[in-house]
C-alpha cells in the first residue's frame, strides 16, 4: 500500500530482514519496539507496515538467525511480550547481508552518478 | 505435530494482540480517544488476517523445504552405499512384513468383533456341572423351550444343533448323480434374527416351520449355493433331498455370513434346517442343543447369569433332578477366539522380537557407518547446520530406509495373507475374515515410520554429538569411538538376548513336538488305517433309524473284510484320534 503523498518511502524487498537483524544488535526487543525503532531512527521516512514485520520475524526465527522468548516487560511484570534476540548465526548473517548491501548500493551509485565515482 | 501447530497459532495470536494493545496505548497517550486509538493502531498494523496467513504459509514452507532437503541427502547417502542399503531394506522388510501379516491375522481373528450387529451382546449358553466346570455341554430341548419363554434378561434365545446331511438332488431319486455331504445345523426359527442377519434371497425361517407337522425347509449358505447350484436364483423354492427326506429351499444367506465357529475352527454349516421337535421336545437334563442368546441392551452379563441360575433351579424342580448343574453364559466372541487368542498373541510377541532384533541390528550398522560419515557430518556442522538439523537429517535417512523396507514388508505381508487360506491352518477360526485391507497398509506404513525412528534415534543422537572441529582434525577419534563402541555393545547384548528368547521358545516347541510324536499311544499305530464314513439315517427319530444304520454298518464291514483278507476291521462312532472335525 504505497502512500507516496505522505512523503514516505516503501521499503525495498528483502531489506527488512537486514533492518530487523541490525535493530536486534542493540539487544533483545519485541515486535512493537522493532517497528518503532525503525520508524523513529529514519524520522518516519521508512514506512514499515507493522504487520509485515511478523512474517519476517517468524521467518528469521525459523532460519535460526533470531531466537524468541516470552518475557515480562521491564517495568510491569504482569505483561509479557515475545522478545527476539540475535543468535550467533544471525550475527554472521547480518555481516553477510551488510556487505552484500554495500556492494549493491555501490554498484547502483556507480551507474547513477558516474562522474562522482571517477 | 498438530499440537505444536496449534501452540504456534496461539502464540502468534497473542503476539499480534499485544502489539496492537501497545500501539493503541501509545496513541491514547498522544491524545486520541480510546476507540480511535485502537482503530489507528489497527491501521498502522495492516490486515491482521493477511499477516497471519503469510506467517502460516512460511511455517509450512520452511519445514517442507527442510524435509525435502533431508530426503535428498538421504537418497544420496543410500546411493553411495548400495550394499548397506539393500541389506538394511531386506532386514527391515522381513521384520515389518511378518509383523504386519501377524497383526492382520490377530486383528481379524482376535481383536475384531464378530460380524454380527451388536455382536458384543451375543452369548453362548452352556450347561456345566459344579464338579467339572471345564466340561461344557448343550441344553436339552425342553429346557431350551422353557428358557426361551421365561427368560427376561435376553431379548432372544435361539438353539442350534450341528449335523450332517447327504444331499441328493430331488429330481434324481435313483441317486445317479453323485451325492455329497454337507455340514448342516438344525436351528430354531429365530436363529438368524437372534444373530441379526437375514437371508439375501428368499425368506427366513418362521415359527410355523418349527412345527413337526410342517413341510421341511432349508436355507443354503452362499458358498454352497455357488459351489453346488451355480448361483442360480431359481434354487429358492426348489426341492433338495437331504439324507433321504425332501426339503424345500426357502432362502440363501448372504456371502459374508458364516455361523460362529463355536465348535472349533472350520466347523461351519453350509445348510440350515428348522428344528421341528417331535418327541424330543420333552427331553430334559443334559442335552445336545446349543443355545445362543442376545442380551438386552445395557444389561451386564452378571445379571443374565444370575437369572440363568434361578431359571435352572426352576427347571430342576421337575424330574430328572440333578443338583450340581449350572447354566453358564460365555460371550460369543470369547467362545470363538478363546482357544486361539493366546497362541496368536505369543506369535505376535515372537515376531515383535524379530523386529526388535532387526532394529538393533540396523542401529548397529548405522553406528558402524557413522565412523565413515563423521567427516561429512562435521563439514555440514561447520557450515552452519545446527545439531538438531543434523539429527533430523539422520532421522530422515533412517525413516526413508524404513519406508523402503516397509514397502518390501507390505509386499511380503500381502503375499503371506493371500497364501494363508491355501495352507488351511486347522486351528484358525474366522479364517475367511482375514483379508487385505486399509488397516494392513496403515499398520505396515505406521510400523515402518516407528521402526525408522526407533533404530535411527540413538545412532543419530550419538553421531551428532561429535564436535565438528575435533572430527575434522580427526584427533579425538578414540574418545568418540569409545562412546559409540559402548552403545554398539549394548545393541549387541539386546540383540543376542532377544534372539536367545526366540531360539529357546522355538527349541522348546520342537522338543514338545518330538515328545508328542514319541508318546506311547497304547497300541501299535503303524499299520492302522482309519477311514471316516457315515450311513444314512432315515429320520431324526432314533428308534426308526436304527435298523437301517445297523444293516448299513454290517454290510460295509463285510465288504471291508472280503476286500482285504487276513486283516481286521472295526467301527467306532468317533475316531480315536481325530482333528476334531468329526
Describe the overall structure.
The complex is a heterodimer of chains A (about 120) and B (about 575). With about 120 residues, chain A is an alpha+beta fold. Chain A contains 5 helices and 5 strands. In chain A, a hairpin with a 7-residue loop joins strand 4 and strand 5 (about 80-85). The longest helix of chain A is centred in the last third of the chain and has 25 residues, at about 90-110. Chain B is of the alpha+beta class. Helix content of chain B is about 55%, strand content about 10%. Chain B has 14 helices and 12 strands. In chain B, the strands form 2 sheets. Chain B has a 6-stranded mixed β-barrel with strand order 3-4-9-6-8-7. In chain B, strand 7 (about 240) and strand 8 form a beta hairpin. Chain B is extended and about 110 Å long. Chain B starts with a helix and ends in a 19-residue tail after the last helix. In chain B, about 30% of the residues are buried. The chains are: A alpha+beta (about 120), B alpha+beta (about 575). The interface of A and B includes residues 1, 51, 62, 81 and 82 of A.
Topology of this protein?
The complex is a heterodimer of chains A (118) and B (582).
Chain A: E1 9-10, H1 15-24, E2 29-30, H2 31-41, E3 46-47, H3 53-62, E4 66-72, E5 80-86, H4 88-112, H5 114-117
Parallel strand pairs in A: 1-3
Antiparallel strand pairs in A: 2-5, 4-5
Chain B: H1 2-29, H2 34-45, H3 48-80, H4 82-111, E1 122-129, E2 138-139, H5 141-150, E3 154-169, E4 180-187, H6 191-195, E5 201-202, E6 217-220, H7 222-229, E7 239-242, E8 245-252, E9 271-274, E10 286-287, E11 290-295, H8 301-316, E12 325-331, H9 332-382, H10 387-423, H11 438-464, H12 468-473, H13 477-518, H14 542-563
Parallel strand pairs in B: 4-9, 6-8
Antiparallel strand pairs in B: 1-11, 1-12, 2-10, 3-4, 3-7, 3-11, 5-8, 6-9, 7-8
Helix pairs in contact in B: 1-2, 3-10, 4-9, 4-10, 4-11, 5-8, 9-11, 9-13, 10-11
